[in-house]
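Entry 0007
Protein: ABC transporter ATP-binding protein
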Amino acid sequence: MNKPALLEVSGLKTYFYLENKKVAKAVDGIDLAIYPGETVAIVGESGSGKSVTSLSIMKLINKPGKIEAGYIKFSGTDFTPLSEKQMTKIRGNDIAMIFQEPMTALNPVFTIGNQIIETLVKHQKLTKKDAYTRAVELLKMVGFPRAEETMREYPHQLSGGMRQRAMIAIAISCAPKLLIADEPTTALDVTIQAQILDLLNEMKERFNMSILLITHDLGIVAEYADRVMVMYGGQIVESTSTTQLFEQPQHPYTKGLLESLPNIDNDVPRLGAISGMVPPSYHFPKGCRFSDRCPSAMEKCREDNPKLVNLTDEHQVRCYLYEGNEQ
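Output (structure tokens):
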């Protein structure tokens, strides 16, 4: 793209230092860019490093975790040297996040209204009266039919879908430039999932936000993302446009994920499956991190981890099958 990236992450490494001198390389050399107004999805199985990537961007990594290398630039500002106090001004204001489980992200002892008002007073410097009025507007905007009553309710009084809507109201309250949605529809039934995702899309258009969508659901990716990054073993293994990923997947891991999806157009007796499990991040294979599960693994795959190479300007893949095909 010609315009500058809103978010630029380069060489990001986030490690966790465990007992017995084990080092969990949860994120191990990630590069990503998000441009204004687009939705980028990071997909992969649990344990691939998706959520740690999003928490690293927000600088919410606590001990025993540590951001070991790389830089994170947002609107041209490098987050790396910023203090916690400086980051507090950015979080919720310029970058907001929706967490997987709203019941743990929302404070159980404060009303929904209090939690939205606090964000508006802190970041937007509104008076409590103006913040109250704005909070009611936000709840109506995200689909609460009885917004004023909801202001007085506590998180446990709301259903899962309504708690997620309340989280979205808090997240968009300061009209952030970037919204990070970490598995925003976990534990919600299918109809509520669709409503929440449509709502996020609507808010994206209304506030001209960019969205970083963390998910393991390729159906959601197909419907809502502009570009996709497939993550495995703490690294990006394939990155391209959503259309290209579904029409011409290249990495064996991506192909395995797509083959495991049911398709109403294809009558297959049995869905595909990827054998084995995601290895723990403190015990990756010596070579390619997918080599012990890959049907196409060669000897060199077990010795050296391939680099992410450009197949085209918009399609990158980390696989020795494409050695010599890179641009």
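Curator remark: The mean pLDDT is 91. Residues 161 and 278 are 30 Å apart (CA to CA).
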